[in-house]
Amino acid sequence: MTDSLNIFVTEETIESDGDGPLAGKTIAVKDNISTKGVRTTCGSAMLEEYVPPYDATVVTRLKEAGATIVGKTNMDEFGMGTTTETSAYGPTLNPLDEDRVPGGSSGGSAAAVAAGDADLALGSDTGGSIRCPAAFCGVVGIKPTYGLVSRYGLVAYANSLEQIGPIAPSVEDAAALLDVISGQDPHDATTREKPDVSYADAATGDVDGLTIGVPTELVEGADDGVVEQFDDALSELEAQGATVEEVTLPSVEHAVQAYYVIAMSEASSNLARFDGVRYGISGGFEGNWNEAYARSREAGFGDEVKRRILLGTYALSAGYHDRYYKKAQDAREWIKQDFNEAFEDVDVLASPTMPTPPFKLGESLSDPLQMYLADANTVPVNLANLPAISVPAGETDGLPVGLQLIGPAFGEEVIIRAGSALA
Ligand code: GLN
């Protein structure tokens, strides 16, 4: 395999002797998911030499199911980004157009599936990092309900928001992978028993009788070309027997702000362990411990990670905590309520996954705020801990468009069913 698209940080095969539902399948695993004995960098120079002593629960389950892991995929550093360009190992190129980004932060995983380097992939989604690259690479990605999939062995970025989830060429394949990785894990107390269903069997392609709500707020900001494809896909679902109606989620106007305050606050705490003593590259032995930590973090972290640690520390500091962190938590609560109310009237919600087609390489790096705003349609789902799927919905100017379907908590079945009518 020549990796001219820079999809893998580490190309190493991890065979399995399991004989389960994934026997004979190859899978690419995002490089923030721990693999025993195989380097796990999180796209960071800080962890360039880190080799985990244990497997993440999802990796144990992949092995039991018979999957062969083909490598660890490139990603934005610690998951912080929307393009896979903040990786210390260079950007991944989009297999559909090599001048463009694959999306992020699980860009290597989505590109691996799109390029045919693996049958399946695992990503992680804190604010869109599975759905965005799935949309930008023309494949399927599922962000599970918070608590459906174990985070044991996932290197934390913002632990109250994130889940590991599947990326695949079809909804049915993604659902079959979700069947393998989901369910309670004694190592992660936030997990719960999987509902007694087969997600793969839910991919029936039958949307007859389903009510799909379209939140106007999540369509307004999108490019015309994206909205056109989105509307076409909705018409197709209507033609197959679904009902489409407009709904409103007024609180999502605050989602990007709330998300970035919460994500950066949690990141500033989670990344404190990378000090060259507990984890990460050594800061040497000159001077006192504070100077040694500073040297480790100065050399080990990239600009985006430093920016977020600084802002997160600020948002949590005494005197500012009520003004930023507490307000963001209030907004999060309001967003949850809005979704709950919407689900009293509709079965699923639909929106464009990303407001634009994939960016040109280098385009968004110089303007972090613009990059954060691209997450407008994906972050509300993480704030509300809900499940969502991104499925391919046509092309605009030859570039892929993704359609997002959001379900009620632990309602993976219904988004899989609806998504399978399109992909
Ligand atoms: N783009 C978002 C961020 O930078 C989401 C990242 C993610 O889901 N890991 O935080």
Structure description:
The chain has 423 residues and is of the alpha/beta class. It has helices at 57-64, 107-115, 131-137, 171-181, 199-202, 217-220, 224-239, 255-270, 289-300, 303-316, 322-345, 368-373, 379-383, 412-419; strands spanning 8-10, 26-30, 68-73, 120-125, 140-143, 163-168, 211-215, 243-247, 348-352, 388-396, 399-406. It has an 11-stranded mixed beta sheet, sandwiched between helices. Strand 10 (388-396) and strand 11 (399-406) form a beta hairpin. The radius of gyration is 20 Å and the shape is globular. Residues 79-82, 105, 125-129, 157, 263, 375 line the site of glutamine.
* Count of helix runs: 14
Order of adjacent strands in the largest pleated sheet: 1-3-2-4-6-5-10-11-9-7-8
Estimate percent helicity. Answer: 25-40%
The whole-number mean of residue pLDDT values reads 97
Strand residue percentage: 5-15%
- Name the shape in a single word: globular
